Amino acid sequence: MLKKYMAAGAIVAGLVGVAGTAQAGKDLDAVKARGQLICGVSTGVAGFASADSQGKWTGIDVDVCRAVSAALFGDSEKVKYVPTTAQQRFTALQSGEVDLLARTTTYTLTRDTALGFDFTGVNYYDGQGFMVNKKLGVKSAKELNGATVCVQPGTTTELNLADYFRTNKMTFKPVVIEKIEEVRAAFFAGRCDVFTTDASGLYATRAANAPNPDDYVILPEIISKEPLGPVVRHGDNQFADVVRWALYAMIEAEEYGITSKNVDEMLKSDNPSIKRILGVTPGMGKALGVDEKWVYNIVKQVGNYGESFERNVGMGSPLKIARGQNALWTQGGLQYAPPIR
After folding, report:
1. What are the pLDDT digits (tens) for 266-299?
2. Residue of 137, 120, 323, 132 lying closest to 236 (CA atoms)
3. Beta strands at 57-58 and 50-51: parallel, antiparallel or unpaired
4. What is the pTM of this model?
5. Is there a contact between 71 and 22 (Cβ–Cβ < 8 Å)?
6. Contact present, 205 and 151 (Cβ < 8 Å)
7. Is the dihedral angle over the CA atoms 49, 284, 232, 160 positive or is it negative?
8. Strand, coil or helix: what is 232?
9. Is 287 exposed, middle or buried (0-12, 13-18, 19+ CB in 10 A)?
10. Mind listing the pLDDT tens digit for each residue in 179-233?
11. How confident is the model at residue 89, as a pLDDT?
């Protein structure tokens, strides 16, 4: 009987050995052959994805694209950014126009299944809110009965808005505009009483687009769960793994105190987890099908999750958003990465 168990163990070990090295799929092969990652981003949301006058893209979503590029190529700049509207984004991913969508996109059941996508994590936990001009004198979303509301079509925002007003037995008049820049312009021009989107987007809009930010207030109600994360097509598990673990690497690095400033010093750490994460102890890169220095390259060139958050949307940015739910799990937040081991 013992021999039988030993034989079975040998077979399992053999299978683990065969599966131990990642096999590239068609999407990953195409990205590698091209030598560039094509990333679908928003058309311009401060702190998440926006381009400056020189065409340089920055933002917390942009950093996900950069991290994937660093993992694949050892270079965070091998990315082509394709701006997409809320309605265009899914077609762009389904058609292969982009390899990856990192565009303030909410993780939902139907998107993860019926649309043929895989969400690979959450890089920002958000929730929908409302912004109004202070002169309306409104203190709560419960006072918005009969209001005109600016909203983008083809979004979870549009559905949540209808659900919230119906649940609270209120009516509203939607002003539906596809392009986010035109939604903002309509709101600030007074075409609607209320602008609704994810709270992060409201903070970004007020900081970057309001004629006078102090004239606008974001109401206290958060009416939904909006876990925002990167999305890939079904069908290439290894590419999905690289995107997933590139994000997890940034979170794990923050947890272990590995930053863009100290990552070279951390290569000398005696901590076995840090040695494994940074590739000093090899194996994780091979399992993922990338260079053993993949996490080192991400952290050195992009930073850990906390650095990215602080720089783009946190207290060190014009948005000044508190970490809140996006703090690490060790600090009472929701950001938690499975171990790199």
Report:
1. 999 999 999 999 999 999 999 999 999 999 999 9
2. 120
3. antiparallel
4. 0.89
5. no
6. no
7. negative
8. strand
9. middle
10. 989 999 999 999 999 999 999 999 999 999 999 999 999 999 999 999 999 999 9
11. 97
* Spatial separation of the C-alpha atoms in residues 70 and 29, rounded to whole Å: 16
Q: What is the CATH number of domain 128-224?
A: 3.40.190.10
Domain ranges of the chain: 23-125+228-331, 128-224
Measured distance CA(139)–CA(130) in Å, rounded? 11
Q: Confidence class of residue 154 from pLDDT cuts 50, 70 and 90?
A: confident
Query: Beta strands 124-126 and 231-233: pairing type?
Result: unpaired
- Cβ–Cβ < 8 Å for 277, 295: yes
Closest CA to 264 of 293, 290, 307, 305: 293
Q: Compute CA distances 322 → 104, 266, 309, whole Å.
A: 18, 28, 10
pLDDT, tens only, 223-253: 999 999 999 999 999 999 999 999 999 999 9
Q: Give the model confidence (pLDDT) of 23-79 as tens digits.
A: 678 999 999 999 999 999 999 999 999 999 999 999 999 999 999 999 999 999 999
335: three-class secondary structure by DSSP: strand
The residue type of 310 is E
| 87's tokens | 């309605």
Spatial separation of the C-alpha atoms in residues 240 and 112, rounded to whole Å: 13
Q: Which residues of 7-23 are buried (b: 16+ CB within 10 A; e: fewer)?
A: eeeeeeeeeeeeeeebe
**Domain 23-125+228-331 shares a fold with domain 128-224:** yes
How far apart CA 304 and CA 328 sit, in angstroms, is 12
Residue 190: CB atoms within 10 A of its CB come to 9
Residue with tokens 């002169």: 135
Please give the pLDDT value at position 23.
Answer: 63
Rounded CA-CA distance 218/220 in Å is 7
Backbone angles phi, psi at 130, to 5 degrees: -135, 140
Q: What is the CATH number of domain 23-125+228-331?
A: 3.40.190.10
